[in-house]
Each structure stands twice: as C-alpha cells, then as structure tokens.
Write a structure and sequence with these properties.
mainly beta; three-stranded antiparallel β-sheet; 7 strands
C-alpha cells in the first residue's frame, strides 16, 4: 500500500483523463495524455510515466485505481 501523500485525484471527462490541479505548478484542469494501454498497465501495477503538459514535469505512475494516481514521489504535503 502506498502513502496517501503519494496520490493525486483524477477524473474522467468523456474519454479524457484530467487532474483538477497540477501537483507541480498548480495549473487548473490539466488534461493528461496517456494512451489507453499505459492506463491499463498502470491499473495493473506496472510503472508508467506522464509528462505534465503545463510545466513539463515528469510524473512516475506506479499504480492507478478508480480515483487516484499513485506515484513514487510525494505529490502533496499532509
């Protein structure tokens, strides 16, 4: 199990994956460009990467569930 500080919520809008706010720069309503295959692999627990289009920071995704992206680095301070 991962620490909650390593998670970030996301939501689906139609077939697009959005985060309400970028964990790195704070930009609002950021569209993540992940291929369906990478999403499926992340949901199965395989590590994948996403580059945030707003600030070009690399997000390492170690897992995804129905509500959260889980990373290998802290994305929030508790």
């Amino acid at each position: 199990m991962y620490e909650f500080s390593h998670s970030w919520p996301f939501e689906w809008v139609m077939d697009d994956l959005y985060v309400e706010e970028c964990p790195f720069c704070g930009e609002r309503s950021v569209l993540l460009s992940l291929k369906k295959e990478n999403i499926r692999l992340a949901q199965e627990g395989f590590k994948t990467h996403a580059v945030m289009p707003c600030c070009h920071e690399k997000l390492v995704i170690v897992n995804m569930d129905d509500d959260y992206i889980w990373s290998d680095q802290p994305l929030r301070s508790l």
